[in-house]
Specification:
homohexamer, about 300 residues, 18 strands, alpha/beta, Carbamate kinase, 11 helices
Chain lengths: ~300, ~300, ~300, ~300, ~300, ~300
């Protein structure tokens, strides 16, 4: 960062003023951030994301954070001697597994994010989907494709999907200037916990809050028309185009659920949904407050 | 409970009306409950305590719950293959130990209490001391008495004591009719977590909220002037008498920190502090809403 | 009540908790009570009804009381040497009669209810229909059936029917936690007072407030399909069934206006309307907070 | 009033504007009016006082009315065949007498004032001292002077004096723009009613509300230094002078309690207290909004 | 005004009470006043209008003042050596001219009105259309009729017409009890100022505020069916009749824009629009608070 | 500014985040800015100051602007053919002069600032000291030193000094998110206007608002211990030191009133007072949001 040190204070002041139109655009708006990937592992990136969120709060944005579990869940399961099995990309989750996942998500990762934000000068509050029944969930079955045309639905335990988001707690906290940090654990109707994909949770919450933007921090630069051809990078994509790219197979693999989350967020009332590269320094600020923007934006 | 079934509806109605003066006494008041011991282990007692809290909420009380960790922490440490060492009754707590304690407290026990309360019809919100810097803590040294007169202070790691309670988050939640459920984890100034005795945390929070009452659920009937003589049970005790009984050794062992918590709560502005027997059915309701009361009350 | 004294504190606590689902059901709801009959004469019943209302208030209900005149009006008229004449069940009411009725209703009965409630620990406020034009009324003519098919409408003086309920005063008082106690006097547009049937006033007020329930305290157990056959008692009745029973003559005499009041309350937006036996101890609490319920409920 | 008809609209407009400084002086202020005497008997005066109060309300004053019983109580007692006995100017008041007094005050006079005010376009609410325990009272003994120096205190029944005014109900109503009209009935601690001198009640309420002014409508022009000498009329009197005139006997008879009420009102925080002539047309408006003023003002 | 001095205080009090129905009619209502003409020149009239406005405020009206420029603008232009040219009755307004107009309107006339009102005891706040973009305007072209049928539109510089009224600032000030005084300067989108006809501005503001009344102070008695025949004066006129009188030429010259302003105000939601004679003493009070009324009222 | 264009978006994002601690420091604080000098003349500087203020607003500061008159007053006086005479540095100000000054300040300069700010996306409201009696002033006499020891006080007309600042209007506007822009015109008690030194007005307003900071934009770099020696520049100065430098003559000439304004602001409760160089680009942002700071800060 030696470059920055060479920049004069005068130029820095100009740069701050240059950001004004972007700051004005998002003033008073709710922005939902899915925090995950490398930005949760690399210490420097971690601290940058935290600062970005604090800055967003201070320039008048209402940020809401949903985090994933990163490698911590798998690592803790290992410590407990639990093997991890996946079916169609979903972790088979027995009662003990979801218990450990919840402990890691709500009792370790969430807590660490909250603490880091507070140390930087906001009032963050950690939540899970159980708090005030924030995320009501039910069981999600895995879809298994055997050779035939039929899709089998397989019970893989306590993997959930969102049934309802109860927004009053989030809004009560936002109205009192707290920063909500939410672990993607859903409350089942029979006392059970569900582990839910954090991208989907973020999309559902963005929709329920009628957020201005959903920002998904990922470990890719965004969406390419042709993944092999780096020059085919897409900055802005309509919902229809996105669906076509999924159908044509150009959006594939781990990108599919992310794009589906974006589509769902837009369908349920979010303004825009962006897949941004969490491996970049200050990616949130770059996306929101500079002319450059980063990543791929999905719009209506 | 077959007895109750024999009681006529008319008598039940009379019993409800009989509770009116007690309900009036606590209407609108804040009551802090330390939830722990057998009442956290026995399924029937668990459910009863939860119902008691929900009833308290519905008859106009502002309940605040602080819970301990029960045997879960030790059991999880064992699963991780961590041996547990105690010095002067305090668990030696290295970084990994406090991490596991936090995961168990905030990610398992707290979450379960929140979920049970919500299923019974209130809006509970789980918190730890890190949320909005609710509990600021610093390291507590163990006092070790060797044969000599001197007391040695030994560093036993991430065992904390409360430095400051920040009440705004609790009050914001109470004002919006949520039931706060708090794990006794403290936030250190250098990002570290501290495990703190839940009785002390409850006492500090009761004082900071200027609560009407602090109720410590324990596994004893209360305080005896002479523990051997069951007829010497004490219903009400002044602060001075309590101090004398500690000095004379009549209050001893595990009861000392509980009585000290009561004394501290009174010193910092709580109205009354009670040690009650969590092994009794509906002990909270018995204490608050019947002429009998239970346990030992410490008053100014 | 010696039975109750034999019930242990533990059982009493259980009974309180047993009431929780009922308390939750009515929390924050408005319930309109027509207070009359024996429950206004018998000292023990009087005091029980008052306690029931105070308990309702403390467990979160918004109770509104409308009272009748009981035998007091007739007795005072007698003291004044006024003979009482009835036409079709309605008291012929000259100017002096309505004056005395108003004095008895607003200056004696209302005042006594208010005072009793206040002594038990709520803040009751006595109102008549004149306060802030709460009840706007006009003259009601008596229907006289001579032998022929024709119905004659006879002017019997200052007997009124409700033209409009102005709810702001009631709501302003409820919002500030007062218990409104209302005498069934209507304000005419030309300065005159009208005496109005209290059941009808209660029904109109329940409708205007969109109350959860209207409870009419009567001196009967409720409605029978066949009044002679005690086994034909009806716990729940739809509006249509009620109309049929009136047409068929199974509901007759003094029960007709009560059932009509219930029907009108339902039509104008009240949730449920119940005729309950005010001669029972704690009949309101029995009805609301026990599984037994009492009396006959008229529903949509 | 034919004079007024000759006044041009232009002059009328000028007169309205002339009142501006007086209107500004009392804007937002609480003024307590004791309504009694001829102004309660003469139909024309009655209606004028009502209009005066409504005008006061519309130009921004917070008026509070306390009324006496006038000749109605005696007349109703007569109808009931109760003889009226006085000791030291106070009515001997048995249980039946206070009951009739309360019925007349709260159920007839109060109700009529409320209705008249409402017809003129405000929202008046009738209260007695029992509403929300507005006036807590205890028994007042009559002082009997036999020839000797000693004063005997004689129990004359349910004649009360104010023990405490509970202002929240009055303020809640004023804040919601209602006009409170209060009957001088006090609530005793043992369920009994007390009849209280309305001048004293008005003085106590003025003090409790920290009113700007107490206006006592009387049937005299005010206070004279020498009652025989009409030229000795006093427009403004200090508390000390008033006390001297009582001691010297220049203020005597029925004027003494009125002046004592004024002195008490000033002592307890009322700004000014005025004895004004209720037999004059629009005496309240004359006093408040013209340069003339009327009656005698007692000041600190 | 010697007449008024002969009127007794009693008659004055009666006159105040006589105004009550008018005061009630306008209580809490917004009334927009276009202040201009002789009432801005004659010192006595000036002071009377100011007092009228202050009285309006104190009897519960929400007055909003829009003022014209009177002869001051022309006189200042002269001092600057600027000749004034008119095309179709509109002043040709170059950049310097609009600058001087704005200085005179916002920096002299507005300021003087504000100061006078404040001295009389209200809190007036001076605004121009630039404050919080209160009046957004664009250029208005002059319509020039040469002999032919065609109308030519001629650019005469910075003469504007209203594009949008932003009411929040006015309402925020009214809600806090300030009296807004507005200069008819509009803000263009490219930083330019526009001078706008004050009658039109008043009409637009009355409409945007959904005012109860628009009062245009003029130097005529109002509208005549036949201007030559003083007996043909019109007190009330419908919109349709007004349009007919314009088409027939009976409303002509300077009266046309005033009547058009009235018509526009009614179209955009104002209750009534009145042209009143500002040369009369206390014309505003005469119009609002006496049975006489003055001027011509245009209604739907 | 080509340099800035070379800075990468990544570096720009870092620079924004770097400003976070400064943004946090001033969040929610009131900062009073005296706007004058070159920054009011140079078009580029003008626009920069406006953007700086808008940015301040959007990052949570409550800015209040007081502006001077710059060369405009003198230039308009010239146009009017008024010669300008100064006594002891104060303009001799007759009635016509103060009239023109007010027109220029309130009707031209203020209006332009308001318009520029609004175009950049805030809601600015122009005020003068007359609005809601914001600045109450009285005449200031010039101090003339002849050769002798005596100081003569000379009446120079409508030059004023602040008697009282009425803050409610400013706070009402700030609470509703408006940016107040204030012309330094004072309201005299006898309807007269006073022209007041804008530095002093800013200091008085900063004190009355208990502002966090007063920023005086000047045409110098700040204060030097020895004006000749550029290396003696002072970044921070205590009140005592400042007084000494005035007494010793090191602070002299036009800098004296500025330093006196700072001292007065501190005395009346402002946190800090800074003299900053308005000739620098983005001087406000430089001062507030970079580590460099500029100008001289006077502290307690």
């Amino acid at each position: 960062m030696s470059n920055i040190e060479k920049i004069t204070a005068e130029d820095k002041a100009s740069i701050l003023v240059e950001a004004l139109p972007y700051i004005q655009e998002f003033y008073g708006k709710t922005i939902v951030i899915k925090y995950g990937g490398n930005a949760m592992i690399n210490e420097e990136l971690k601290q940058q994301v935290m600062k970005d969120i604090v800055l967003m709060k201070y320039v008048g944005i209402r940020p809401v954070i949903i985090h994933g579990g990163g490698p911590d869940i798998t690592s803790f399961l290992k410590k407990f001697g639990k093997a991890t099995e996946f079916i169609s990309g979903l972790r088979v989750t027995d009662k003990e597994t979801v218990q450990i996942a919840e402990m890691v998500l709500a009792g370790k990762i969430n807590s660490e994010i909250v603490n880091r934000l507070n140390r930087l000068g906001v009032h963050a509050v950690g939540l899970s989907g159980k708090d005030a029944d924030l995320i009501i969930a039910h069981k999600k079955l895995a879809e298994v494709h055997d050779g035939s045309d039929k899709v089998q639905h397989v019970d893989i335990g306590y993997v959930g999907e969102v049934e309802k988001i109860n927004t009053p707690l989030i809004n009560d906290l936002l109205d009192k200037d707290y920063v909500p940090v939410i672990a993607p654990i859903g409350a089942g109707k029979a006392d059970e916990s569900f582990n839910i994909n954090a991208d989907y949770v973020a999309a559902e919450i963005a929709g329920a809050l009628q957020a201005e933007k959903l920002l998904l921090l990922t470990d890719t630069k965004g969406i390419y028309r042709d993944f092999e051809d780096k020059s085919s990078f897409i900055s802005t994509l309509t919902q229809n185009e996105a669906k076509k790219l999924i159908n044509s197979g150009n959006i594939a693999g781990g990108m599919i659920p992310k794009v589906e989350a974006c589509l769902h967020a837009l369908d349920s009332g979010t303004g825009k949904a962006c897949i941004i590269d969490g491996r970049e320094s200050h990616s949130l600020i770059l996306e929101l407050f500079t002319s450059q923007g980063i990543g791929t934006e999905v719009v209506r």
